[in-house]
Amino acid sequence: MRMKTSITNYCAAIGADPLLVQGAGGNVSWKSGDTLWVKASGTCLADAQRNDIFVPVDLPHLTSALSSGDFSVIPRLRGQSPLRPSIETLLHALMPHQVVVHLHAVEILAWLVRNNYERDIGAALGSRLRWTSTGYHKPGAALAQAVNTALDNVPGAGAVLLQNHGVVIGGADVDEIRHQLRTITDLLTVRPRPPVSAPQYEPLSIADYESYKPVADPFIHQLAMDTTLFNRLSSSWALCPDHVVFLGARPACYSSMDGFRSEIADSGFRPALIFIRDVGVFTQANFNAGQMAQLRCYYDVLARQPEGAEVNVLNNDQIAELLDWDAERYRIKLMQ
What is the pTM of this model? Predict the structure, then answer.
């Protein structure tokens, strides 16, 4: 009971920090005897103190399969629950630690999306902690298998850095997790670009046109108002899995208000999210809180890229396998 209380308190704390957790992103687990308690898919860490967001999974069933190289194993619930275990349950089961936390932390993601991220992070972290890393893999079985190999290559690693995805940290308890996460984020903290001018809307702006409304977050508007950020949207869009799943394969960018109006008049295409250079960022009414959290995360990561930095984006095949995935459709449905 003491372990669960400390974990739920910690989950609520990190879940309230958008630089660590965005919407239903991230997952946490702990091991108790033969049971792996893992966050349920589609639930939010921020709700850990209010709702029962963890489900019990048969741990020996998973470890037996994983030890024999079977990464297609399906987690087996202990008892009945209407919720599904996290997509990343296998990753939590194979980590040897008592407590495991997987986050899409902005300060870390800002490095993980860059080319040569391992070299640059290695220089920043030095020998302050033992870590390993893996290239990008689809969340679930493929990622778990890659993490398993990475841990074999660096025995005793307490952190695994996932290209274009996030970080996995293991520890004996919450205090050890907290210390490792703080160490990594402190060493990798990057000051974001200073904001340029805020948008000034005309009386008959897009806010009154075709049901589009400007986003409430002034920083997100920097994606349209800052020329450098706007110019990077098309080439630096698919930075991480959750971003693609919640926001789509590519951005709808327009060089002017007239260009936007002309295109929707000609094609009838009305995306849920649009970017208009020097005007702002706008959404339709069905754009939900989970999507907005991912959009702010995207801004936070992009705004922390050095001038001219080359980033690694997911390719068309990687995007397609994320968008054509029942597990992610289920998670999105819960967030609506």
Answer: 0.92
